[in-house]
Design goal:
This protein is about 75% helix and about 0% strand.
């Protein structure tokens, strides 16, 4: 079992950044499947009959998209800690940008759900958060070459 000091080493950090990139690709695929092939549940905004959380659990792709989003949020926080400990110039800044962009995408997605899947500006914000996160983690992977 790896010790904490090893878990923030170059090998583990690069592996974690690659994992985030892989999960971002998976999140994109799930989001596109939702957008193109799945009918969103009919949940009127402000509905008392069916909670929004129930909408997540009644649509398998939506549930998978939500679970991967939670994992991305937690993973990006972990990477931010690793970047801060790395002492590589600009790594914390880039990891912070990645974390914030995933947080924006996550919150936009949740607000999109609360809008009854009708506010396209929130869907657009989710997509922008994804793009910024993807670019940030590619840049962070390149920066990780400078780690010891």
């Amino acid at each position: 079992m790896a010790q904490i000091s090893e878990m923030f080493g170059k090998k583990w950090f690069r592996r974690d950044v690659l994992a985030i990139l892989g999960f971002l690709v998976l999140q994109f695929i799930l989001g596109m499947a939702l957008n193109l092939f799945v009918a969103f549940p009919n949940v009127p905004a402000g509905s008392q009959e069916q909670t929004y959380i129930n909408a997540i659990f009644t649509t398998p792709f939506l549930l998978e998209h939500f679970v991967v989003g939670v994992g991305l949020l937690l993973g990006s926080a972990w990477i931010l800690v690793g970047a801060a400990r790395s002492k590589v110039r600009n790594a914390s800044l880039v990891a912070g940008l990645g974390f914030i962009s995933i947080l924006v995408a996550y919150l936009s997605g949740f607000e999109f759900l609360l809008s009854g899947f009708r506010n396209n500006a929130l869907s657009f914000a989710m997509g922008l958060g994804f793009i910024v996160a993807l670019l940030s983690y590619f840049a962070l992977y390149r920066l990780s070459d400078k780690m010891r």
